[in-house]
Amino acid sequence: MFRRFISGVVGGLFIVGSVTGSGAEAMPTVEELWQMVQAQQRELEQLREQLNSTRSQTSHVEIQMQENSERIEAVGEVLDRGGSLGRASWADRTTIGGYGEMLYNDRTSAASSKELDIQRFVLFFGHEFNDDLRFYSELEIEHSLISDDARAPGAVELEQAYLEWDYSRNHRVAAGMFLVPMGIINETHEPNTFYGVERNRTESRIIPSTYRVNGIKFAGQLGSGFSYDLGIHEGLFFESGNGGELTIRDSRQAGARAEMDDLAYTARLRYTGIPGLELGLSMQYQSDMTQSGSTRSNINRDGVLDSLGNPISGINAILTEAHIAYRSGAWGFKALFAEWNIDDKIETVANNDGSNNGLGRDRQYGYYLEPSFQLTDKFGLFARYERSDERAGSTLGVARNSASKRSLLGMNYWLTDNVVMKLDYQFEDDDKASDLDGFNLGVGWQF
Prior knowledge:
Blueprint: H1 2-22, H2 30-82, E1 94-108, E2 113-128, E3 133-142, E4 155-168, E5 171-179, H3 202-206, E6 212-223, E7 226-234, E8 263-271, E9 277-286, E10 317-328, E11 331-342, E12 363-374, E13 379-389, E14 403-416, E15 419-430, E16 437-446
Antiparallel strand pairs: 1-2, 1-16, 2-3, 3-4, 4-5, 5-6, 6-7, 7-8, 8-9, 9-10, 10-11, 11-12, 12-13, 13-14, 14-15, 15-16
Helix pairs in contact: 1-2
């Protein structure tokens, strides 16, 4: 590239020399010499730009060569580990994690209650067999202590254990024990993912979280922000029991030798097509919550009886749920409503002591509203109002004044995204005038 420049300089000197030898009358003026120098300078600048461009292209090619070399080395490492791109080592395809929380409750009612508890400790194990088939599981210890001592409140529970297979693009099926696709926190309930020391009452008592079942579930994306879930699984199992077993929460079978005389069916539709917004609508149908009047004396399940000791069956039920979760900048808002509509035959169910445990339970509902504001990426404030009634179908006898209203004000402080400290104060007003006010502290983690 310098040949043109050298040729130009030599040519210019030759012209000057020739003019000098031919006589003074042909000598160029100073202005003409200055113009010649400027022309040569411009050509020099053009040659310099061409040189820089060539160097830039060379550098770009060298960078691409280096990146390609790194990619080849990475592919080689995968091949060395698993023999093919789709088969990494066992350790690379296996995931271990967990979550847990410790809570302190200081509440005042008719009797003061101060309690410190490792409420739950959960270990997660997952494994990918290939790109389309995987396994998930969660093993939970509740309240830290399990023994034959009646004072030990703990339990060991399998919370999830299922295989998931992508049978086509954007569609999958799961089989085993899974969390029912309903509500906001039933599937995502790690303590660092929600405000408040404890889970809200509607999703603890009405849905009830964590609601886990044995069965099969289809799920997938429909496009335009819509997704679906369809589950066929075990249902609840009502019993007469000694009082508490007729509640929704106590009727969960949790996959433990679950009665399957009558199945349950769950469907959910979600919309997440707008950033920060989730809309959800779900429904569950159960054909008979008595499991066709099933009784199993070997595990003390006595079925459902009326006050005369006659068996009751054919209690069908529908659970509907709708929610919204929205986040825009620092502001957040959640609202959820859930309601059971149960065959009114449930009102004739009695306890072993003859009291009418089923009165009013044909309708049970709950809802909450929760605005929040995140001051920084670590510190957030929230308020929550919730109301629930597990005997809303009647205002007679033991079902009278069964509604519970609770307001909470509190804060979350995230030490990291996966570790949170919580504080809230609750004001609870029961229709039975058994108020339960006080504060709660908590720390939670996930890994």
